[in-house]
Amino acid sequence: MNAALIAGGLVGLGVFALVRALFPSRPGLASRLAAFDARASRQEDAPRPGGTTSERFGGLRARLGTALARFYASQGWEQRTVRADLALLDRSFEAFLATKFLLPAGVLVLMPLLAAYCALLGIPVVVPVWLGLVLAGVFFFFPDMQLRQEAAVRRRDFRHVVGAFLDLVAMNLSGGRGVPEALMTASQIGDSWPLRRIREALTNARITGQTPWQALGTLGDEVNVAELRDLAAALTLVADDGAKIRQSLTARAASMRSREVSELEGKAGERSQSMLVAQLLLCAAFLIFLTYPAVTRLLTA
């Protein structure tokens, strides 16, 4: 029964692929623009004939990622959350899509070897097939889970630096500097990666003729940090009144610090509860260990 279901599913998949090949969907404007943008960098992504194995694999991964990115663009799948997390981690969307595809593909390629090994051991072929499909699904969603965890840690660090950045900007405003000079001076004090991102955004804004708060708002949208967007909105509203800006920045920094303290206290409480549960389970296991011999004697008597 299971073999018939698997065979039917494979036949249906083949029919669907045949129909899609005979009647392809009409490419939209987004896919054409993506193809036009990727055409300029296609020569750079292509591996050289005399390159090493790693370079050839990198070129294959780049071409695969570019093709998947064009497919996503043609389907209208924006993936804003994923793009924001990748921008925060300074990674490319194409490499992420290639990794997301190659991991389950590797599992599916190794599935016949696993099936042959299980056949030698006398295990039914259905077991390795389902096991391979489950592993392929797990490996398909594994990059998303890893990206979400790493981005959460980086975003928390970014928020912490933004709170200190607000205090520095308020101090510079108290010293008599204007808003653009205060923002640039505050971003040049440290050398951490969030301050470097803020400094690069402010420098690019000066080159392109944008206002610093517009650059901060764009950066907040790019990395999905609400504090930067709120800062850009506040600076846009009160850019002409230095006193109100100082009060607003000081209040925002204080609220961010209090929120960080409350989050840390909440995490500490969760860890304390988890430790308490672990201790209770250990005590229960110890009691079962002590009472097991007496219970077995009573039952066998």
From TrEMBL:
It is found in: Cell membrane. InterPro entries: T2SS_GspF_dom. Keywords: Cell membrane, Membrane, Transmembrane, Transmembrane helix. GO terms for cellular component: plasma membrane. The chain crosses the membrane at residues 6-23, 101-123, 129-147, 276-295. Residues 165-292 form the Type II secretion system protein GspF domain. It is a multi-pass membrane protein. Its main location: membrane. This is Type II secretion system protein.
